[in-house]
Write a sequence for this structure.
């Protein structure tokens, strides 16, 4: 009896050991999941110690795929392949829980966004946000809204992004995540700048930068300064943007200045020395990663050569810039078409699989319930017919929408081509006219003897020529040129600001034409202080009015 008891106890111990070993891998997954948010490095180390061959259950493989993706992203690895997390999405779609499906969809959206497949990334991102709202989970609601914001901003839809970045700000605050909350506020300031609301954007960024400086958070200071520089530059505040850039440079050893900021700074402070320094710095960057960086680089060269009076070189870079922009448009169209085609193919495969499964089930059930088979087949075929008809109608709508989009893109490209021709003509006119003033001065100097009396006569003639600029005929010619080369700016001004006086229109015409303050004072015989007062009064009056184009610079 005692011998049999010992045998039974031994068998029980062996079974317990086997059971314990079989649960070791799931236990590791649970430990990794428990520390993922607080210590992603430790979670990743636990996951690396797991032998994937021991993951015999589909649920364990799905959790492993989700946690490994999450750990890599949380340790700042930029993933561009969504195949791993897609296995988790497929499993949790069918088996749950919803919390893991929400996370899997979020990371799938982030990876697709990293790969610039924005048309695909938006769907899982929106689904993750909706699931977070349903679960009343402010943390994941904030993360999903922040991801959607990044996708919209990357696709030039900043106005639409305001709703989602505001959600992220509110939900990070509700989750007591102060740092995420502040970074999203900085993003909101940048987005306001993208939409033209520079003052509001600047106010938000200034307030966060002040806090970050006080707390010595250099990461946040640099991020905020870069956003502030963008707003100031786009607003046209050259002095303010230069001061902001100088502050950014103090962090340059640890936080290299972005290509965009460097390009904008060079464009606003163009000179031979600044351009040479810019070209030298560009050598340190191996490749441009985005079309935006290429466009900034080419635009910097265009501005430089226009400033130097070398229109042929400027036009060459205009052509290169158009090629970059055309390629970006073509890529966007191609990505859209390929995406729709892939979605259609995937859906067709899924439908055929479902149809095969349904047919198989129908045959099995028909063998047992022969009497019901006719009714089942009839209902099934009728339903499939409706689905196909509905799908065909939707596909037709998609084709019509794509056709309209392609026509719109063609119109835009035609406008760009026409604009290029106009720029060439303007450049030729300017090139022919640029030596006229010098020739007139040389003729005057050549004809006069080199005496003090001749110099006084020549000076008197110069003064007379300046006075000619103030007569109605000269001012009318200037106004006509402005309307021709600056998109009818004086016509708009006269129609939208009819309360201004004729002398106000003349003063503004010279300002728009590029005359400096001293030249205008000589032409109108006014003092410099009077000029500045008039200019300030006119600006205030225009800004206070309801002119639709008053923000045009």
């Amino acid at each position: 009896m005692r011998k049999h008891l010992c045998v039974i106890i031994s068998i029980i111990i062996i079974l317990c050991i086997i059971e314990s070993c079989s649960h070791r891998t799931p236990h590791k997954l649970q430990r990794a999941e428990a520390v993922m948010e607080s210590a992603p490095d430790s979670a990743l180390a636990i996951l690396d110690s797991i032998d994937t061959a021991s993951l015999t259950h589909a649920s364990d493989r799905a959790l492993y795929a989700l946690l490994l993706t999450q750990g890599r992203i949380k340790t700042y690895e930029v993933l561009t392949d969504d195949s791993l997390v897609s296995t988790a999405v497929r499993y949790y779609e069918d088996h749950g829980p919803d919390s893991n499906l929400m996370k899997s969809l979020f990371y799938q959206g982030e990876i697709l966004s990293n790969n610039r497949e924005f048309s695909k990334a938006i769907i899982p991102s929106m689904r993750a946000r909706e699931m977070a709202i349903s679960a009343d989970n402010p943390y994941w609601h904030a993360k999903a809204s922040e991801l959607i914001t990044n996708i919209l901003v990357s696709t030039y839809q900043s106005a639409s992004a305001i709703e989602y970045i505001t959600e992220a700000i509110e939900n990070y605050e509700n989750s007591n995540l102060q740092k995420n909350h502040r970074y999203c506020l900085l993003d909101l300031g940048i987005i306001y700048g993208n939409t033209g609301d520079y003052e509001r954007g600047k106010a938000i960024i200034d307030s966060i930068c002040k806090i970050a400086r006080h707390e010595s958070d250099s990461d946040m200071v640099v991020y905020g300064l870069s956003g502030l520089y963008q707003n100031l530059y786009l607003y046209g505040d050259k002095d303010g943007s230069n001061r902001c850039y100088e502050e950014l440079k103090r962090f340059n050893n640890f936080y290299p200045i972005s290509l965009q900021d460097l390009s904008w700074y060079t464009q606003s402070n163009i000179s031979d020395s600044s351009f040479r320094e810019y070209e030298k710095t560009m050598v340190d960057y191996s490749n441009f990663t985005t079309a935006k960086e290429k466009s900034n680089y080419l635009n910097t060269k265009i501005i430089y050569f226009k400033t130097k009076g070398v229109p042929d070189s400027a036009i060459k870079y205009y052509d290169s810039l158009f090629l970059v922009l055309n390629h970006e448009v073509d890529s966007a169209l191609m990505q859209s078409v390929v995406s729709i085609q892939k979605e259609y193919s995937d859906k067709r495969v899924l439908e055929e699989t479902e149809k095969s499964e349904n047919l198989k089930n129908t045959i099995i059930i028909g063998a047992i319930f022969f009497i019901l088979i006719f009714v089942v087949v009839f209902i099934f075929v009728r339903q499939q017919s409706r689905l196909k008809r509905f799908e065909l109608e939707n596909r037709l709508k998609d084709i019509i929408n794509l056709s309209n989009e392609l026509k719109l893109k063609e119109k835009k490209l035609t406008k760009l081509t026409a604009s290029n021709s106009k720029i060439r003509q303007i450049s030729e006119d300017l090139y022919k006219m640029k030596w006229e003033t010098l020739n007139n001065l040389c003729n005057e100097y050549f004809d006069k003897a080199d005496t003090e009396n001749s110099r006084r006569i020549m000076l008197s003639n110069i003064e007379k020529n300046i006075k000619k600029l103030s007569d109605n005929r000269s001012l009318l010619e200037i106004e006509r040129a402005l309307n021709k080369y600056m998109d009818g700016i004086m016509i708009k001004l006269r129609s939208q600001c009819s309360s201004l006086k004729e002398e106000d229109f003349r003063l503004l015409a010279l300002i728009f034409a590029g005359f400096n303050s001293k030249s205008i004072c000589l032409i109108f015989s006014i003092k410099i202080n009077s000029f500045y007062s008039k200019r300030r009064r006119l600006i205030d009056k225009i800004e206070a009015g309801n002119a639709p184009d008053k923000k045009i610079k």
Observations:
- Residues 17-23, 334-342, 430-435 have pLDDT under 50 and may be disordered.
- Residues 373-433 form the longest helix (61 residues).
